[in-house]
Amino acid sequence: MNLKLSLAEWSLHRTLEEGKISNLDFPAIAKHVYNIDTVEYVNRFFAGYDSTYLSQLLQRTSDAGVTNHLIMIDYEGNLAVPSDDERLQAVDNHKKWIEAAKFLGCSTVRVNLHGDGPSNDKKIASIDSLSRLSEFARPLDINVVVENHGSDSSKGTWLVDVVKAVNQSNVGLLPDFGNFCIAHPWGSTQDGCEEAYDRYKGVEEMMPYAKAVSAKTYDFNEKREQPLMDYQRLLAIVKSSGFSGYIGVEFEGNTQSEDSGIRNTISLIKKLL
Fold it and tell me: pTM for the complete prediction?
């Protein structure tokens, strides 16, 4: 078993949104501030996806001695919507980020399966979208992974059904320790959810198809532990699955600084592993 840490850029989303740092600064921060040499980007923080900007970012990662692992793709359209016109446009919108991932030396892009309509219709649409993205990404040697991220996509069995139906070696899952709120697609915790999927059951169902793991944390308690989840149990599920790869550090707390949240997350993972 070979488990390594990567740093998810979303851990610094408040600092990025406030303009205190930019996407170009992220690789050096990961390496020199947190001693993590592998990074996961979020596409919304890119100033562009042209070769000039990507070359600048690639130079920054080279200078810092950082490996580019993954790009999380948001806001490029719904891949699970039954409408062909809308969905196929979303598929095309995602392709430029797959090309950007190849340019940067990433191995993986993360997509979401969002959409409206009956659950089975969304499943059929998702299978088609992922099949098309898989075909596009395969010659570039890029994996396409789906994160549990609200509504039907927070159901472990639903995601597994989709990936099994696509049946392509470069398509898999990105289990996130959070994001199991079904009733509210963007609910970041279980609080206030009308319906939530069992996070331990969900992670266990997803792990056989995992190509990466998102070790989500929220605000820490006074013991520097996670009050909303049994972190030891979650990491035990990951270890027992035989998974080898990157565990992404992703802090999403609201009342604590991002710096302390990232450091506490790293410490918690290392202690339990």
Answer: 0.95
